[in-house]
TrEMBL record:
This is E3 ubiquitin-protein ligase. Keywords: Cytoplasm, Metal-binding, Notch signaling pathway, Repeat, Transferase, Zinc, Zinc-finger. CDD domains: Deltex_C, RING-H2_DTX2. GO terms for biological process: Notch signaling pathway; protein ubiquitination. One of its GO terms (cellular component) is cytoplasm. It comes from the Eukaryota. Pfam families: DTC (PF18102), zf-C3HC4 (PF00097). Belongs to the Deltex family.
Length: 382
């Protein structure tokens, strides 16, 4: 059996947090959350058990006062045993009585009492230390709210990344295929109170020009995540997110090397996604989708560039960009989980299918594919 270090990345409804593990993590990163919600403690309050205090039950069982030791005529006495209870001071009377009977049978009569509460200075319980942002739940909650507030409506997003032009050109709008000097082809389909059907704008960075109403229609048909992508050069404005269903990403470190990378170990990635129901961002909301071939196993060399690709894949996973729901190019099945234009190597020791090693250009190619999805080295510095 192979020795493997394991790390888990969860893709849940919301941002994820780090999961502690008894085994060492493959890559430690403070910017990622990798664990599920913490488990709730089991509560005994709903069991409807008839209970009494430890001291009272012990006193009933022994026939002695629970608060002090008892003295006999010959001068002997039963010692008092203080008991410190954590939480509610209620136990089953039969248990307390049994404990007293067993101690008496052993020649050790005792009276159980509740230990006195320690007297402490109220000021000593106060701490001058402030909770760190990573451990302060209210801080995390405020970050989530502020991030949601950044997502504006279609008009605000278009105006944020595009500048309106007063001069018209006779070029074609590649979205509606109408002249930029004419009305948008989406006039009557997309409605806006502030954007006119003949309004034209250009992107602030790449400079490509489109009907503003066409860009608004394109945004409304996407994931509505607050980002825009230029239809001409594919430059992404904002943070792009995808439609990947919920799942889990496991990471392992294998001692074996990959063909073409003999000087290092291998990184093993396992993706887990279960069948489910499509959401509003999927092609057929409300209909079930399948998840064939999961878990899917992929491999990277454990060198500098391989670890860099791994960190970029973590970002892409958290942004729901690795998979999507669509039609399989292999089987033609619709409404199933498919790869989302970020190629992975699924063969470890061969390259029979073309999805294995050796492949000297793979790491550079996948970095370019990730950049096309808006995942670059700049994301790792945030």
């Amino acid at each position: 059996m192979l020795n493997r270090n394991r790390h888990i990345v969860y893709n849940l409804a919301g941002p994820s947090t780090q999961q502690p593990s008894s085994r060492s993590s493959l890559v430690a990163s403070p910017n990622h959350g990798f664990s599920p919600y913490t488990k709730r403690p089991i509560s005994m309050t709903g069991m409807n058990i008839a209970a009494a205090s430890w001291a009272g039950a012990a006193g009933i069982a022994t026939g002695l006062p629970p608060t002090s030791g008892s003295h006999f005529t010959n001068g002997s006495s039963i010692p008092t045993v203080p008991i410190q209870l954590n939480g509610p001071s209620h136990v089953i009377p039969a248990f307390a009585g049994m404990a007293a009977i067993l101690m008496c049978a052993a020649g050790l009569p005792a009276c159980f009492t509740r230990a006195a509460k320690p007297v402490s200075n109220p000021d000593s319980r106060k701490s001058d230390k402030k909770p760190s942002p990573a451990k302060d739940k209210s801080f995390r909650r405020s970050k989530k709210v502020s991030r949601k507030e950044l997502v504006k409506g279609p008009e605000e997003v278009v105006k944020k990344y595009m500048v309106k032009l007063e001069q018209r050109t006779d070029e074609d709008c590649i979205i509606c295929m109408e002249k930029l000097s004419d009305l948008s082809g989406y006039d009557g389909v997309s409605h806006s109170k502030t954007i006119q059907p003949d309004s034209v704008g250009k992107f602030t960075k790449c400079g490509h020009i489109f009907h503003l109403l066409c860009m608004m229609a394109m945004y409304e048909n996407g994931t509505k995540d607050g980002s825009l992508q230029c239809p001409s050069c594919k430059m992404i404005y904002g943070e792009k997110t995808g439609t990947q269903p919920k799942g889990k990403m496991d990471l392992y470190l294998l001692p074996q090397s990959l063909p073409g990378h003999p000087d290092c170990a291998a990184i093993h990635i396992a993706y887990y996604i279960l069948p489910g129901i499509q959401g509003p961002e999927h092609p057929n909301p409300g209909r079930p989708f399948t998840a064939r071939g999961f878990p899917r196993h992929c491999y990277l060399p454990h060198n500098d560039k391989g670890r860099k690709v791994l960190e970029l894949l973590k970002v892409a996973w958290n942004r729901r960009l690795i998979f999507t729901v669509g039609t399989s190019n292999t089987t033609g099945e619709a409404d199933t989980v498919v790869w989302n234009e970020i190629h992975h190597k699924t063969e470890m020791g061969s390259n029979v299918s073309g999805h294995g090693y050796p492949d000297p250009n793979y790491l550079d190619n996948v970095i370019a594919e990730l950049a096309a999805q808006g995942v670059t080295e700049d994301c790792l510095r945030q």
